[in-house]
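From the shared-data thread, chain only:
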Amino acid sequence: MSIYDTDTDPEADLGHVTPDTEFESDLAMDVKAQLREVLDPCSCMSDHPIDIVDLGLVDDIAVDEETGEARIDILLTSQRCMYVIDITDEIRDRVESVPEIESADVHQVTSGKVWTAERMSDEQRNERRERFEARIEAADITPYAEQSD
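Structure, as tokens:
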């Protein structure tokens, strides 16, 4: 069961899975909980780990409860992400760790959608902004927009 009905409206703005997204299916909620454990590798390297749901990388979760098949659609921050294999493997391993899931397929969205910071959870976006502002202040830099002639 997908949270979106793409069969009846393929042109619909599908949004994405957020920390607040609720599913009717407990199994889909279990899959989402596992995805909250997958950390974005680049955020880990910056010492501020963010899970892929908070980062807005999970575009859709579809679960067939009869067959135990799950499909996870992800939209990466860059189509050239060199960690796509690692992210995909971890998603598959974590989702397949749910007892009712027999197999998990991970698909990268390539429909022309572009990841933007607006896909991040409000909490993570605010924390990111605060870290940026603290670094600017610590470096005693005046942001270009505030510089005067």
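The helical segments are 26-35, 41-45, 52-55, 84-96, 122-138.
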